[in-house]
């Protein structure tokens, strides 16, 4: 009977340890469940942030492409302006020469008019 009672006490201790271990496992499981929910929520937030970031990067890429196209157009306009300025500078010398050629004729015009009036 004493041996049977000792066995029962051993079983009761084992049962109490099992209950304690089960309780600890439940607490650990509960904490892990909370952590999992937090991790899933954080994952959703990061996914939203990632989508926002991708959209922002796409918009920035489009803006940069527009800026590069505009810069290219400005470079072409600058080259055209420089070409036209060089062309005007090249035409200036012959125009000045022609003006000087006609200038003496302009001063003789009054002389011709005076001669016609005298005649």
TrEMBL record:
Q: Which InterPro entries match?
A: Laminin_aI (IPR009254)
**Gene Ontology biological process terms from the UniProt entry:** regulation of cell adhesion; regulation of cell migration; regulation of embryonic development
Under the heading Pfam families, the entry gives: Laminin_I
**Which key words tag this protein in UniProt?**
Coiled coil
Question: Could you name the domain of life of the organism this protein comes from?
Answer: Eukaryota
Q: Which GO terms describe its molecular function?
A: signaling receptor binding
Residue limits of the Laminin alpha domain?
Answer: 1-77
Q: Where does this protein have coiled-coil stretches?
A: 1-91
Q: What is this protein called?
A: Laminin subunit alpha-5
